[in-house]
Specification:
Elements: H1 3-25, H2 29-55, H3 62-80, H4 87-90, H5 92-110, H6 115-135, H7 137-140, E1 146-147, H8 159-181, H9 184-201, H10 206-232, E2 234-235, H11 237-240, H12 243-256, H13 263-282, H14 288-302, H15 307-323
Antiparallel strand pairs: 1-2
Helix pairs in contact: 1-8, 2-8, 2-10, 2-12, 2-13, 3-5, 3-6, 3-10, 5-10, 8-10, 9-10, 12-13, 13-14
Length: about 350
């Protein structure tokens, strides 16, 4: 096991222990609610990063699949009688798999485009799904909304089951993101981000890699949508398929560092608590929007590549400065044999 892998596992284990202990240490319901929302956005940002951060294809319609997962769980209550309590939470893998399979035909068409065209296509998909939710009254109840039966959980600990459901999906998404990063699939995705045409030319199965990453990404998004729907117990099209959810997830990924494993998590754990606290303190005047934007602007101004890449660059530069010799010291030159292709230095 490499040192980097061991360090990642240690960080993951420490984070998991802290996440599990959080609702038992903090008993205030509103703080646990912030924890639920933080994990929700951390998972959405991580799922978005798994596709867009690794391939360079910027998706702006991720919330369409969030809403699809929410409506899938809500319709299952109404038409299939999946029960209440913990049963809907145990059905989340089926919800995610269904959303992932439903996304494949759409992704196969959308991924024929690139760059800004792909972003526009996915943004259009968002509004198409939202209009379907408004107009398919016999399935979604349209603007009247779809009600879910209230979970029979203890009022004093009502948020805990949803917190742990969000935590489980988040941990699975984060582990998947970490595993893909070091796998052959991850190398294929990163090569697509760097130069898709060259990757295709050297034999990379570009279409298959993109479809797999997209399906896994929206599968996690659909599962989070299902947890959210059961948590709030009522689904409206304008809230389940809200463009601001996608914008928030994308901003968090960029803030922490897209294309990294922990970047979206860092971005979510900074922005969501700040947003919720400012909304709680300044919500009546809506000044919290200015404060929220200011925090994001300051961080992006001083850390333009995102928090994790910027800090990594500064640490690497500092280590390089310490290892460099004093002025006038001769620096050893690599031998011919150590350079690629035997080229002279």
């Amino acid at each position: 096991m490499s040192r980097a892998t061991a360090a990642s596992l240690v960080r993951g284990g420490a984070f998991a222990a802290a996440g599990i202990a959080f609702p038992f240490v903090v008993h205030a319901a509103w703080i646990v609610n912030i924890g639920v929302l933080t994990l929700m956005y951390a998972t959405l940002a991580t799922a978005w990063n798994l596709f867009s951060g690794y391939t360079g294809y910027i998706s702006l319609g991720q919330v369409a699949f969030f809403g699809l997962g929410a409506y899938t769980l809500g319709i299952s209550f109404e038409h299939f009688g999946i029960g209440s309590g913990y049963n809907p939470l145990f059905a989340l893998p089926l919800v995610g798999a269904g959303v992932a399979l439903a996304s494949l035909p759409v992704a196969w068409i959308a991924l024929r485009t690139r760059h800004m065209t792909f972003a526009i296509v996915t943004l259009t998909l968002l509004f198409v799904v939202q209009q379907l939710a408004f107009n398919l009254h016999h399935i979604t109840h349209g603007s009247q909304g779809l009600a879910l039966p209230p979970p029979p959980f203890n009022v004093s600990t009502f948020e805990q089951p949803f917190y742990f459901a969000m935590l489980a999906v988040f941990a699975l998404a984060l582990f998947t993101c970490w595993w893909v990063r070091g796998s052959k699939l991850g190398l294929m995705l990163l090569s697509i981000r760097d130069d898709e045409d060259r990757s295709r030319g050297v034999g990379v199965r570009v279409t298959g890699a993109k479809l797999i990453a997209f399906a896994v990404s929206v599968g996690f998004t659909g599962m989070i949508g299902g947890v959210w729907a059961y948590y709030i117990q009522f689904i409206y099209p304008q809230f389940a398929i809200d463009p601001l959810i996608t914008i928030g997830a994308v901003l968090m990924a960029f803030l922490g560092g897209k294309g990294t494993v922990w970047g979206p998590t860092v971005g979510a754990f900074i922005l969501v608590p700040v947003q919720q606290y400012m909304a709680y303190k300044l919500g009546a005047s809506e000044l919290y929007l200015i404060g929220y934007a200011s925090v994001f602007l300051l961080i992006m101004l001083f850390l333009p590549r995102g928090i994790i890449p910027s800090i990594s660059d500064r640490l690497a530069a500092r280590r390089g400065g310490r290892t460099a010799g004093p002025p006038g010291t001769a620096v050893a030159t690599p031998s011919r044999a150590t350079l690629p292709g035997g080229m002279a230095p």
